[in-house]
Amino acid sequence: MPTPVLETRDLTIRFGGQVAVDHVSCAFHPGTLTAIVGPNGAGKTTYFNLISGQLRASEGSVRLRGQDITRLAAPIRARRGLGRAFQLTNLFPDLSVLENVRLAVQARAGVFLQCLSLAADRADLTETAINHLRRVRLSDRAHTAAAVLSHGDQRKLEVAMLLALEPDIFMFDEPTAGMSVDEVPVILDLIEAIKAEGDKTILLVEHKMDVVKRLADRVIVLHNGALVADGEPAEVVASAIVQEAYLGVRPTNA
């Protein structure tokens, strides 16, 4: 078995006397999309926060390509290829859509000391940013201030900025939340395109089971902070523990 690109070992966090994530061990490999599901309060987003470096673990470890990164800060994890949409792509509301994405392109290219006016002279950076905007269908809003975008368009802008950072691991936390029915296919198609590249690892927290069934190769289920199921989508969704814990359906007695 090859070394997983990302792995958590007995990953645990406590807030006072409450265990929010309880000794979760899980490995993730390139070319796979894993959906993380569970009821509200199950620990899904907290687990994401531990992986991306937003929170410090009480116990256990996070490993990236076999190396322990548990004590590394979130920006260092990002530079090593761990990309999380909402955490890494805080929008600059007073800048245009294009300027937001160009800053992410600039960071990926290592152009840190140039101000916006100088960066704007780099035609290659601008063209790369525009290409990412095309992928999320925001190129027609390139010169609009990020602050005035609809919620759905802001989510698409976040995804464009994540794409600009070119991570090896994509972490999406309910990427279609708050989007209109017409906007959702843009993001789902984009996630499918990333998956089709074959060398990326995708983690997806999602409540919509139709999205999970469409995208996921694998589903893991968290409940009360613990990992309670792990397997193929159809098998996991049909399991008694998921029917009860996630869907609220109690198994009937024979």
What would CATH call the homologous superfamily of the largest domain?
P-loop containing nucleotide triphosphate hydrolases
Shape, please? Answer: globular
Radius of gyration equals 19 Å
CATH fold name of the largest domain, please? Answer: Rossmann fold
Order of helices and strands: EEEHEEHEHHHHHEHEHEEHH
Q: Could you tell me how far the N terminus lies from the C terminus, measured between alpha carbons in angstroms? A: 40 Å
CATH architecture of the largest domain: 3-Layer(aba) Sandwich
Strand content: 15-25%
Helix content: 25-40%
- Class by SSE composition: alpha/beta
What is the number of helical segments per DSSP (H or I, 4+ residues)? Answer: 11
Total strands? 10
Number of domain modules: 2
* CATH structural class of the largest domain: Alpha Beta
Neighbour order of strands in the largest sheet: 6-7-8-3-9-10
Low-confidence parts: none
Largest beta sheet, briefly? 6 strands, mixed
Mean pLDDT: 88
In short:
This protein has 254 residues and is of the alpha/beta class. It folds into two domains: 1-81 and 168-254, Rossmann fold, CATH 3.40.50.300; 87-166, no CATH class.
Tell me what the structure shows:
By secondary structure, the protein is an alpha/beta fold. It folds into two domains: 1-81 and 168-254, 3-Layer(aba) Sandwich (Rossmann fold); 87-166, no CATH class. The chain is built from eleven helices and ten strands. It is globular and about 55 Å long.
Keywords for this entry:
globular; alpha/beta; 38% helix; 11 helices; Rossmann fold; single chain; 254 residues; 10 strands; four-stranded antiparallel β-sheet
